[in-house]
Amino acid sequence: MSAEIVVIGSGFAARQLIKNLRSLDKNVPVRLFAADSCDEYSKPELSHVFTRGCDADALTRQTAAEWAESQRIMLHPYTVVSAIDTAAHVVKTSAGDFRYDKLVLATGAQAIVPTVKGSDLICTLNSQQEYRRYQAGLAEAKRVLMIGGGLIGTELAMDFSRAGKSVTVVDRSSSLLSALLPPEIAARLQNRLMNNGVEFVFRNELSELSRHQDALQASFSNGLKRTFDAVVCAIGLRPDLTLARAAGIEVRHGIVVDETLATSAADVYALGDCAEIGGKLMPYLQPATLAAMTLARNLTGSAAKLTLPTLLINVKTPDLPLHLAGDPANPAYRWEIAISPAGLIAKGYDRNDIFRAFVVSEDHLKLAFSMLKEIKLNATA
Which of 28, 174, 176, 240 is the most buried (most CB within 10 A)? Predict the structure, then answer.
């Protein structure tokens, strides 16, 4: 009998891995443990649920049972993995102890919530399960405070606004999407949101949250106090390292893996939001997809190494959609920006006038893939 592969986690990376495993080997035994229902849904759709009036159950594309049958895997939904014994090759779960030949950690990441008084009143939308928990209150909310002006916070702010809610975004930085865009480009998206009624409070942060009659009173670091119906946090994700750390597997920002996706423990691998690749966390679909393809090959007898191209990031803001790549927030770059009714084309050049980054919007999104090739050629010239 073939060696059994055990996967912990049921997110995008885990599902891509199993899809690739099945394309390479129809018969290798695969067992998957998930703490949630394990129903399949598209996580990026969480950025648009309020505009579309979509409830949590409607996000489900395929039930866990249907998916397990189609992929011929042994599935354990609502099962908590409590420990990993890397010496004995055993995972300990709420359903019993199971031996593995190869183990894959796809434990994902959890939404970061500020450690302030009243933090238990803050909502997060990092999963279908979280959306199901908060959807009723968020649907009724008319005034929403969004903590974080990064990628997810910006997408959610536009979604809430388009759904007719009054939205305030608070962020400790001085501009929107400060980790991804130079201020002069981010200002275009910020202005579009402001024209739709979104308010921004920069260089500030939430310091306390409390119930005030039927609403929530938010206190900010500058002394300002405002009342909202709901508070949503999108300041980032923290990889779930609990199992790996307790098992003695090397962790830093994430679970450390090499080019083959192998961890420091024999026969244990990691991918997705929990994995640290080349010293970096990469919580995006493209690297997760490529990592899953590479790991599937290695789990079925190959010796593949992960090679990541220049990452293309999609900012899913329908009123001003953006594609960007390179390192657009690098302050050393010189920008050439062309704005027309069709949208924006911005190119960033280093001190040697080599094309290193770009941002395109609206009708110019189709240029992104050809520009990606130019960045790659110039970066290796």
Answer: 176
Q: How many CB atoms sit inside 10 A of residue 368's CB? A: 18
Provide φ and ψ at 55, rounded to 5°.
-90, 170
Q: What is the pTM of this model?
A: 0.92
Helix axes 183-195, 151-162, angle to 10 degrees: 20
DSSP secondary structure, 44-61, as one string: GGGGGHHHHT--TGGGEE
State pLDDT tens for residues 45-102: 999 999 999 999 999 999 999 999 999 999 999 999 999 999 999 999 999 999 999 9
- Encoding tokens for residue 293? 């393809």
3-state SS, residue 302: coil
Question: What are the percentages of helix, strand and coil residues in the chain, rounded to 5?
Answer: 30, 30, 40
Helix (H) or strand (E) holding 347: strand 343-349
Give the C-alpha separation, 149 to 193, whole Å.
12
Exposure string for 44-65, b = 16+ CB within 10 A, e = fewer = ebbbbbbeeeeebeebeeeebe
In angstroms, what CA-CA distances link 188 with 123, 291, 344?
28, 34, 9
pLDDT of residue 79: 97
CA angle 368, 369, 375 (to 5 degrees): 85
